[in-house]
């Protein structure tokens, strides 16, 4: 199958850092090695799977569950034997959050943490006034990253969209 | 001045919790008391200031800087003497982040923290492929909260939009 | 109104410990003082409010939101002026979790923490097999405490019941 | 022996995540490998052992002690030589709690942690009124997970049941 | 009532350190002030209450529950009005453990902590061999401090005695 | 040499948990393997060494220093070549405390920690009144575990006995 | 009484920083106020008490116990009524270590902490070879600070001297 | 070369604990193995190098830099090929402090930590009065351990001597 | 005295945030109040004192020691009675570092922390190659902040300059 | 190619400490091994790459991104096959900050941390007055280390230079 190689931005693709491998499930090195071998971006893989880029990257890091169809599509686009993939923990349940130390040391991730730290109460006040007593679900949830270019430069836009869950009265 | 009282959602307005006052600057109790007295939502105040709701809430919690015009507008809409506001730390520089303990205990804020914890590396991989080596600024940055209702229920959408800053080569 | 005073178990009622007051919202001392004054148990108050005991205790500690009707009922059963209650943060939104240091030092609460620490992965494995990839909501959620006496002694039974939320595919 | 394979819910069975193996006793990889090989759910194994699912999962994670009979039954249902099992730490005493970092990063487990954090004092107040000064034992204790389906969706019910231990007077 | 003043060892009595008052319940300053005023040791008070010294000291620090009879006896020996004592949190339930930061900074208490840190696994191994899988209860529990003098000097002997609780099989 | 095998209680003997091996000195796996091989309890080994059970267990975990005579006795009772034992770190000095994370996660050890947390100040007050300003030594120190059975059940008694060290005046 | 005022070095005397007062016992502000009022150095006070400067400073910070004679001498040299001093916690037992956060933020104290951090194992190895298995007591202990001037500049010499305590064999 | 073997105290020499090897540079296992093989004390090696014992022990733990001459002398006294030593990180720069967790768990090291915790402010006050505003350098610094025996027993004396560095005025 | 009011940049002057006052010495509120009253920048005050701006700001936050001449100059430029200033802790010794929680939550300060976190080892390697084994003193040290404007925008330049201190050989 | 070997200062070059390798990406051991083999300083390599020494050291520690040209130049000066370098994570994105524990234990790095801890608020106040509300970027940023020798000794000068980023108004 002839997938588009590299990224549409011209940037190199993301590969796995060896020093976090011990915090990842067994499919992660396998998936990343094939991704590197075939020089595929998450954008390209996401299109093949019909999913969002962030979801696919999360899947590579073991932070999301692959459906059977995802596994088939991954095997195809990455030229990996399906049964080899099935032998990994892909058939298990994600053990989320372990690969990240908090507070994050990585500057890119820290900026997101800082936004929560600085605007946490502001978000809460606005969301309480808009929705009442509850939370935005991080489970019934999707997220995406978009690029916007204008005369002031390049902008990164992250959208978080979750179901509003009101506290039960009991 | 006859502002619209209450929230457009019918929910009660947000007021100040007394047990975090000692972590806030001196204008916070003043602003929140007037907000409560006049029963104004952040939406209403934000319209009067021409700013986003989250920015205005951050301003009430001392997490953002008010311009002189903001102070004037706040004084007017909250029926507060402008010079009394000026005597507070509004004339100083925000000391951001102090009111929030991390990890956050508040479930609403924790969900945002969890999103960073779970998807941190996924965001990084996708953003590196899209933009190269750098970060999304949390300073040249804006954010907003929106409500979307569809047949599946009520959704909360948070948008984070920041300038992309590539690492300098030196 | 002639409420039943004391507890049905013959144990003294729960009152407020002064050294956590600074972590609680402004209605807490007010509510607890009236509860003590009238010698009412959470069981009695819960019946008057039509809510669970744990929910009512959470409400006294500022960990749950009172509806308008709850406020009315509380004012009545506690002989408190309704408007005085309304002046507190009862009209605001709960800032949950702040009164508890983790890990908990209190032995009773520590035992619950220990159950999560010891059986966390076991719960996860069983719940994943039973429900798939997701979580039990702590928001669309109720809980209760029951007493069971048998020949082996007295047993405490805690029930946690939450909506199952499957992870969204995105 | 012809055990029912897979789960009754149709969900995949739980397998072991490689990145927590170093926190588990030596029988864990062995047991999980056989479970995966034979595609058995904790429900099926629990029935064969006459124990609760959570207890059996805890046993797989080294968080509970297997009786000699349990070992025999496990060997049989998992097609493992009994003496090979006996050579592991199954003959030793569980070193509980080590596999879990607190606060838990896993969202499913975090929700249970959050319940303790939010309702800790409320549980204590209610339990003190109901039982007096003491704790609910986490040792003379059992727990189970049940599924309930109704028109509002699927619910997860966790029951914690422990002996009430009053503080000794000394 | 003419109680023996001072300690039998000739050492000054223990009084309250002002800088931990904010971590103690409201009866603590009251009880310690009367103790100081009347120059009574915990030994003397313990005899009057028919309890162990450690239990009585724990009671002064709000770490143990006083029975009604204890309150009466305390009021008598300390010359305090019984109803004044009853107005404090003595009528409430102890919120244990809050007055101690861990690891303890106080050298005397640190030594006890160090014993747990150094011999923790040794105790566990010995207790498992002696009693099976379980714990020594810290609730159905008593403790005392004794002094022994011999030719090698003065020795402090602490006895911890708790019910053995075997893990339930479930 | 024909030592009594197994424990006098009928409980299985304690063996080494593989996941703490990396926190232990090099003699620990050797000693525990021989202990398991010969099915010896700490009670039996302690009698052969003329030491307390807790001391011997501490020695197995590298938390106490073996004398030359201890090494000889250990070699004999465990059927280990003396020089092989001498090649381990038994000839070095114990690096105490490393194998235990604090706060302890193990419920049995946590209960001991909790006793220090709850009764720390009470112990201190009583000990100061009894002995003056100083500490109970954890070095010039011994400890033992005893079992007591009465009509109320089985009790575990731990004795801590240390030299009283008064603060030097300087 | 005409004490020598100021320090022999010509440096200003040490006074109390208001922001640690809440971590100190009640005699600390009293003693420091008189010290400031009379402009006395710890050197001068130490001579009057016949104690080391560090011991006297520790006494001012509530980290050491004053004997009755010390109290008398302090009252005299500081022109304080003896009974006023006795009303403070001077008559109680020091609650050591609470005024210091670890790791220390103060650069002077951090350097001492760093010495322990860097040379900890080196000290241990040397001390084990010199003395055997044990510790240097921090209780049967004295310390002093001396100044040495030579052609290379000014040197600070701290001496720590403690009794060697060998581990008991038990 | 015929060095004196063993220690002058008759105590066994210090050897390396295997469980901290992963925190040490590559020369540490090499040096300690040779030291054990030849049964040399730090005292003997220190004399051969013309350095203090603590400095030499620090050098073995990778906490100090060896000069070229030190390497030659070490090679000679330990019968190690000089070039083999040079291939280790001895030619690099020490990465100090990593082998020690703080607070230290080892009782011997903890006592030193406790001295800093208890007397930190006292040292500071005395040093400020003696030297002015500054610190005692931990870099332009030396330290030694001495043994003193008198009728009261054995004493350990540690001397810390550092250049006094006054804060620059800028 | 007619000082230039305001800042040369046209930005408002820095004033004190009320929520850190409890972490500052007693002169801080006094100095900041006068600074606000007279609308003086640190630049203006620094010129009057002949010191760097950062040093003067540190002095206001109690992080640096004022000389007698500094106090005189401060009194003059701030129109404060000299003896009133002298009554504060200005006559004492700075207790540095207490006002800052680490990691810093303030985004501006966090960026400096992040530079140390990211480039720490790189600085060390370069400095070791340039200077040998030692440190850059933070005591014999000065620092300044400069503004540079070019076609690419506005730049902030921070200079850190400290004496190089080689490790003593001992 | 004949590069200048060794450092211009006569100090040994920096090599890799084995105990942090597990925190570094896969190119780090490769690069450092070649650097050691060819005895090249960061100064020499930096000149070959046309970059700053700190940037190059950061590159060796995986804290900065190498451009394609950098990789070519590195391959040339270090005599490494270019494709071997490309197989490492050099083609991936740096995962910054993981190799450093905070607070840093290394004395050299701690001094930088201490500067942030002590002068954090002072920097902020001065920078706010000079630039307004914002931060100095650590991304659009460069840094260098310089050596200055004068009659008072050797000085280390670190320059941090970052773009000033004003907070967006939104």
From TrEMBL, chains A, B, C, D, E, F, G, H, I, J:
SUPFAM superfamilies, alphabetized: Cyanase C-terminal domain, lambda repressor-like DNA-binding domains
Reaction(s) the record says it catalyses: cyanate + hydrogencarbonate + 3 H(+) = NH4(+) + 2 CO2
EC numbers, comma separated: 4.2.1.104
A GO term, aspect molecular function: cyanate hydratase activity
EC class name: lyase
Catalytic residues, chain numbering: 111, 114, 137
Start and end residues of each Cyanate lyase C-terminal domain: 98-170
Alphabetic keyword roster: Lyase
Lineage top rank: taxon: Eukaryota
Similarity annotation: Belongs to the cyanase family.
PANTHER family, sorted: CYANATE HYDRATASE
Task performed by this protein: Catalyzes the reaction of cyanate with bicarbonate to produce ammonia and carbon dioxide. Transcriptional coactivator that stimulates GCN4-dependent transcriptional activity by bridging the DNA-binding region of GCN4 and TBP (SPT15), thereby recruiting TBP to GCN4-bound promoters. Involved in induction of the ribosome quality control (RQC) pathway; a pathway that degrades nascent peptide chains during problematic translation. Required to prevent stalled ribosomes from frameshifting.
Name the UniProt record assigns to this protein: Cyanate hydratase
